[in-house]
Design a protein that fits this description.
Layout (H helix, E strand, L loop, with lengths): L5 H18 L6 H18 L4 H4 L2 H9 L4 H8 L2 H18 L2 H13 L3 H16 L4 H16 L9 H16 L8 H14 L5 H27 L19 H18 L1 H8 L5 H14 L19 H19 L2 H7 L9 H15 L5 H18 L4 H12 L10 H7 L6 H26 L1
Helix pairs in contact: 1-2, 2-4, 5-16, 6-9, 6-15, 6-16, 7-8, 7-9, 8-9, 8-10, 8-12, 9-10, 9-21, 10-12, 10-21, 11-19, 12-22, 13-15, 17-19, 18-20, 18-22, 19-20, 20-22
Length: 456
C-alpha cells in the first residue's frame, strides 16, 4: 500500500496542478477545476496517501478558491440530512453494542443457519438482503453491522478472510436487497416518479417487484458464491469460540431493543404514520430521536443507557467522509460534468440494444462510486428516457437497468451509505474494499445487462 508515501503525495498534487494550470485554462475554467479536484480526491482515496477522512475535507479548502462551489453549497453538503442519519444510526449501534444486544441476535441467527463460516456467510447475505427490500439500505446496514462484529470478535487468526468477507457482505447485501422493491432504495422511487411525471409511465409496486426481486436474488446468490470462493478452505471451518449458551435478556437490553424497535417502526411505516398524524418527518429525524432517547432513558446503577463519554467510540471520521463525498457529487453536478456524461450517450443511439445497456449500466455503476446515486438517477433518467424514445427503444428496461446499476457501487466507502457504515468499523482497509468491490461491480454489470436485455 502507498499510504504516507511522499512520492504518491507529490504525484497527486502534481497532476492536480498540471490539470488546472498548464493543460487547460490556468485555473479559470470551473469545469476543468472540478475535474481536477475530483480526480485529486479519488486518487488520494484509492491510494490512501493521507487519512481518507482528511481527503474528504479538500473541498473545504479548495472548492471556493477554485470557483466550483459557493459557501452555501459547501455548507449544505457537509450538513446534509444523510450526515445526521449516519450520526443517529451510529449512536443506536453503539447502544446495541454496549449492552450486547447484537450478541443476543447473532446467537439466534447462528442457531438457525449453523456454526460453519460458509453457513453464517450465507445467512447474513440473505437475511440482510431480505431486510433491505423493505427498509432503507442504510437502516439495514446499521442493524446488521453490530451482529457481524459480535461474530468476528471471536476470530483471532490474522490470516482469516472470514471477518473481512462477513463485514463486506453486510454492505453489499444491503445495497443488493434494495433493488428488489420500489421502496428498497431511494433511486428506485426517484426513477418511477420521473417516468410518471415526465413521460406518463406508471410503474406499480408489484410491477417493480416482478423485475427487481429475481435480479436481487441473482445478485445475492452471486455475492455468496464469490465470497465463498474467496474464503478458500476456511469455508469449512466452524466458529468455535462464539458462545451459543442462551442468556436471559436483561432489562437494559430490552430497553435498548425497544428504542431500536421504535426507530425501525418509524422508518418502515414513515408514509403511513405521516398520513395518519398529518406530519412529515425524515429518516434522519427518527435516527436522532432514537439517539437522544438512549441518553435519556435511565438504568439501574448508571445515569442512562448511554453517557456522553461513550461517544468517544463513535466513528466521527466517517461523517466527514460522507460529507466530502456529497461535496464532490455537488461539485461534479454543479459544474456540468454529469451533464457532459449524459450528452455523450447520444453518440451510441445506433448501437445494438445490448451494448447500449452495457454502456448505460457501466456509467451508472462506476460513476456512482463518487456521485450520489440519487443525484445520478435524477440527472440521467430523463436523458436516457429521451434517448430511448429517439432510438425507438422501450423506456422501462433501459431506465431500470440504469437505476439498478446506480445502487451497485461496491468499491469505495462513499459509493453507498452501507459501504461507509461498514468501513467505519475500522476492520476494512480501502484497498481491500476496492479490490473485492471491483469484482462485484463487474459481476453486477454483467448480470444487470444480461437480465434486462433478456427482458427486452
Amino acid at each position: 500500500m502507498l499510504q504516507n508515501s511522499w512520492k504518491t503525495l507529490i504525484i497527486g498534487f502534481g497532476l492536480f496542478s498540471f490539470l488546472i494550470t498548464l493543460l487547460f485554462t490556468g485555473g479559470k475554467d470551473s469545469f476543468w477545476n472540478a475535474i481536477a479536484l475530483g480526480g485529486l480526491m479519488i486518487f488520494f482515496w484509492i491510494f490512501e496517501v493521507i487519512p481518507i477522512y482528511l481527503t474528504a475535507l479538500f473541498p473545504v479548502v479548495l472548492a471556493i478558491p477554485l470557483g466550483v462551489l459557493d459557501k452555501s453549497q459547501l455548507a449544505a453538503a457537509y450538513g446534509n440530512s444523510s450526515v445526521f442519519l449516519f450520526l443517529g444510526g451510529f449512536v443506536l449501534a453503539l447502544g446495541l453494542e454496549k449492552w450486547n444486544v447484537h450478541q443476543q441476535v447473532a446467537k439466534r441467527i447462528i442457531a438457525v443457519v449453523g456454526k460453519s463460516k460458509k453457513s453464517i456467510l450465507l445467512g447474513f447475505i440473505f437475511s440482510t438482503g431480505l431486510l433491505s427490500m423493505w427498509i432503507s439500505n442504510t437502516a439495514t446496514a446499521l442493524m446488521m453491522l453490530p451482529m457481524a462484529l459480535a461474530i468476528i470478535g471471536t476470530e483471532h487468526s490474522k490470516k482469516s478472510k472470514f471477518p473481512l468477507l462477513l463485514l463486506l457482505s453486510v454492505a453489499t447485501s444491503s445495497s443488493i436487497g434494495g433493488l428488489g422493491t420500489l421502496v428498497g432504495s431511494p433511486p428506485n422511487v426517484q426513477m418511477a416518479s420521473i417516468l410518471q411525471s415526465n413521460f406518463d409511465i406508471y410503474i406499480s409496486f408489484s410491477e417493480w417487484m416482478k423485475m427487481g426481486i429475481p435480479l436481487s436474488i441473482l445478485l445475492l446468490t452471486a455475492n455468496f458464491f464469490l465470497f465463498n470462493f474467496l474464503m478458500g478452505k476456511e469455508r469449512h471451518e466452524n466458529i468455535h469460540e462464539f458462545s451459543m449458551e442462551k442468556e436471559a435478556w436483561s432489562k437494559e437490553q430490552l430497553k435498548v431493543s425497544a428504542i431500536f424497535g421504535i426507530v425501525v417502526i418509524l422508518w418502515v411505516f414513515k408514509d403511513l404514520i405521516g398520513e395518519l398524524l398529518g406530519v412529515k418527518y425524515g429518516d434522519e429525524m427518527v435516527a436522532i430521536l432514537g439517539a437522544i432517547l438512549l441518553f435519556v432513558v435511565p438504568v439501574k446503577g448508571k445515569k442512562n443507557l448511554l453517557e456522553w463519554k461513550d461517544t468517544e467510540k463513535l466513528p466521527w471520521g466517517i461523517l466527514l467522509l460522507f460529507g466530502g463525498g456529497l461535496a464532490l457529487a455537488q461539485i461534479l453536478e454543479t459544474n456540468g460534468i454529469i451533464t457532459e456524461i449524459s450528452n455523450s450517450l447520444l453518440q451510441f443511439q445506433n448501437y445494438p440494444v445490448f451494448w447500449i445497456m452495457f454502456i448505460v449500466v457501466f456509467i451508472a455503476i462506476f460513476a456512482t462510486e463518487v456521485l450520489s446515486n440519487l443525484a445520478l438517477v435524477t440527472v440521467l433518467i430523463p436523458v436516457v428516457a429521451n434517448f430511448a424514445i429517439s432510438a425507438g427503444l422501450p423506456i422501462i428496461p433501459i431506465t431500470m437497468a440504469l437505476t439498478f446499476g446506480a445502487s451497485c457501487a461496491f468499491m469505495l466507502p462513499i459509493g453507498t451509505p452501507p459501504n461507509a457504515i461498514v468501513f467505519s468499523s475500522g476492520h476494512i482497509h480501502m484497498n481491500q474494499m476496492v479490490k473485492i468491490g471491483f469484482l462485484l461491480n463487474i459481476i453486477a454489470l454483467l448480470t444487470i445487462v444480461l437480465y434486462n436485455w433478456l427482458l427486452f
